[in-house]
Amino acid sequence: MANQKLKKDEMQKIEDIQVRMQAVRAEFGSLALAEIDLKNRKASVESYLTETQELENKLVSELQDKYGRGSIDLKEKVFIPEEAPAASEPEKEVVPTVE
C-alpha cells in the first residue's frame, strides 16, 4: 500500500493530542516539584513540633521543681497544687456488681 496523505482534520486531532500530552507532562512536573516542596515543609513543621514539645517538657519540669505537682489556671494565671490523698483514709477497692 502506498503512503497516503492524512486529512487536515486527522492531523488536527493528532496535534491536539500532542498538545494535551505536553500539558500532562508539564503538570506532572509541577506536581512533582510541589510534592518535594510539601515534603520539605512537612519535615520543617515536624522539627518545629519536636522543638516545641521539648520546650514544653522543660518548662513543665522547671515548674514542677518550683511549685510541685499541680495544674495551672491560664485564665487566672495561678498554680493549683495537686491534692494529696489523706494518709488516714485507705484507698477503697472498687468492685463491680452484677445486677
Structural write-up:
With 99 residues, the chain is mostly helical. The protein has one domain (9-81). Helix content is 61%, strand content 8%. It contains one helix and two strands, in the order H-E-E. It has one helix at residues 8-67; strands at 70-73, 78-81. The protein has a two-stranded antiparallel ribbon with strand order 1-2. Strand 1 and strand 2 (78-81) form a beta hairpin. The radius of gyration is 34 Å and the shape is rod-shaped. The chain starts with 7 loop residues before the first helix and ends in an 18-residue tail after the last strand. The mean pLDDT is 90.
Q: Which short descriptors sum up this protein?
A:
two-stranded antiparallel ribbon, 99 residues, rod-shaped, mainly alpha, 61% helix
For the CA atoms, what is the radius of gyration?
Answer: 34 Å
Number of domains: 1
Number of strands: 2
Q: Assign an overall shape.
A: rod-shaped
Q: Number of DSSP helices? A: 1
Summarize this entry quickly.
The protein is mainly alpha-helical and 99 residues long.
What is the secondary structure topology, with strand pairs?
Blueprint: H1 8-67, E1 70-73, E2 78-81
Antiparallel strand pairs: 1-2
